[in-house]
Amino acid sequence: MFELLQAGGWLMLPIVLSSIMATAIVGERFWSLRRQVVMPENLVGQIWQLDRRKLLNDDRIAEIREGSALGRMLAAGLVNRFHSREIMKEAIQDTGRQVVADLERHLNTLGTIAAIAPLLGLLGTVIGMIDVFAVITRAGVGNPGVLAGGISKALITTAAGLSVAIPALMFHRYFNGRVDKLVIDLEEQALRLIEVMQGEREAGDVDAV
């Protein structure tokens, strides 16, 4: 492995660093985008039960806010629960934009790695081919073995770049789709909270949330 890295030249360093960074982002996003972490089950129902028992005070709202991404959004609405539906909705939307930004954290970086890794590999190959032609200029084409070895070394960076870019692109698209699904579910839960707190949804419906 070390020989391949050495043969690829100095451009293998940013490719390897990109690989390490992409791996770290993928692991972190898998951990952070777990559904039970982003939106705990039946949180709206629990909030409604607290409100019905007159236990929904500032301390409880703070606990809800700190508990999950969904909790952050719902807490913004709960703070304004004695105001109109429109004010509750605006407060939730404002916080929701911040929540979505957190869900999408590092995904732009992962997409950038997927885009630049093959370009770094291609650059390394071009530089390697220039070196090969320089050898041809000096020594001619009398030794095919030398030329074949030089070309194979030049192609190492392209292979390495593609090896980093392909999984990075796959995970980038996967996490984007996952975030989109979570955002839709978060919006649905926020709407249910508004309806519950404003008396627009029957109490029996909350238990199914």
Overall morphology: rod-shaped
Radius of gyration: 27 Å
Structural class: mainly alpha
- Give the overall pLDDT as a whole number: 86
Number of strands: 0
The proportion of residues forming helix, as a percent range, comes to over 70%
Main β-sheet description: none
Please count the helical segments.
10
Portion in beta strands: under 5%
Helix and strand pattern: HHHHHHHHHH
Number of domains: 1
Low-confidence runs of at least 5 consecutive residues: none
C-alpha termini separation: 53 Å
Please give a structural write-up.
It is a single chain. By secondary structure, the protein is mostly helical. It has one domain (2-206). The protein is built from 10 helices and no strands. It has helices spanning 2-8, 12-32, 35-38, 43-52, 58-67, 69-79, 85-103, 107-139, 144-197, 203-206. It is rod-shaped, with a radius of gyration of 27 Å. The mean pLDDT is 86.
